[in-house]
Amino acid sequence: MTSLDKPTEDAQAAQQDARAVTEAALFEAFGGVRGMVETVVPGLLFVTIFTINKNLHWSAIAALGVSLLLVVVRLAMRDTVKHAFSGVFGVAFGVVFAMMTGNAKDFYLPGMLYTLGLAIAYIVTTLAGVPLIGLILGPVFKENLSWRTRNPGRKKAYAKASWAWGLILLAKCAILFPLYWWANTAQLGWVLITLKIPPFLLAVWLTWVFLAKAPAPIDVFAEMEAEEQAEKERKAALGNESGDEATAGRHRRDA
After folding, report:
1. What is the number of other CB atoms lying within 10 angstroms of the CB of residue 93?
2. Confidence (pLDDT) at 5
3. Closest listed residue to residue 177, CA positions, set 162, 191, 166
4. Whole-model pTM?
5. What pLDDT score does 21 carry?
6. Distance, CA of 99 to CA of 96 (rounded, Å)
7. Cβ atoms 135, 121 nearer than 8 A
8. Segment Disordered: which positions (predicted)?
9. Phi first, then psi: what are they for 143, rounded to 5°?
10. The pLDDT value given to residue 225
11. What CA–CA distance (Å, rounded) separates 232 from 147?
């Protein structure tokens, strides 16, 4: 291996490490495969039961029950429950809406409104210069908001990713909301289940592509720890100097 080969290999290794870190962060932020399963299963159970017997109450009870079961499983395994809990809240709102109106399609309405609101949030925050995906992933990468002022290349990547999320979710809403008015409950439910995972995976993949090419995150936690350690060392050095001066003064008095 020549001296010219090593920098190239080092750069490739650093790029691979950055991609691995990005993948791990995305899995942590969005729940990975298990999080997707927990998102899909309650709605899938609801639409399956309703398609079979057209019974809103049994469908709603089954969806809410499986959501609670997923939380219990997470708790039993001492795993993070944020994704399972978010699923419970989403299902609970859907059940309340459907029970209040007596219209089974309203089970899906809160989730659809949330998707629309999230799409708007991605776009508005990006236009405001604070892309939402950066706010979500910043703490995961231990960079917090340092990308806003200290890492312009990373801010640009977050902006691209937020645009991708916003436009993908808007496209999803453009399909679902007309179906809410025109299709029956079973048709809407199956289309919604079909559109649960593919748009999400597309948005995550685009986020990975943008961030894998972006500059590395600035670890602000490591910086703070380094500053604290430097401050301790400075105080220790000042204490040693004071001790040496005091010893020298006693020696002069003794002399």
Report:
1. 16
2. 44
3. 191
4. 0.78
5. 67
6. 5
7. no
8. 231-255
9. -110, -10
10. 75
11. 28
Residue 97 one-letter amino acid? F
- Token readout for 234 is 């400075």
Tell me the CB-side half-sphere exposure of residue 28, using CA atoms within 13 A.
Answer: 13
pLDDT of residue 76: 78
Q: Backbone phi, then psi, for 235, in 5-degree steps?
A: -65, -40
Residues 33-70 as b/e (b if ≥16 CB within 10 A, e otherwise) read ebbbebbbbbbbbbbbbbeeeeebeebbebbbebbeeb
Place of tokens 């190239």: 8
- Cα separation, 17 vs 28, in Å, equals 17
In single-letter form, the type of residue at position 153 comes to G
Flag residues of the chain having pLDDT under 50: 1-7, 11, 14
Q: What percentage of the chain's residues is helix, strand, coil (to nearest 5)?
A: 85, 0, 15
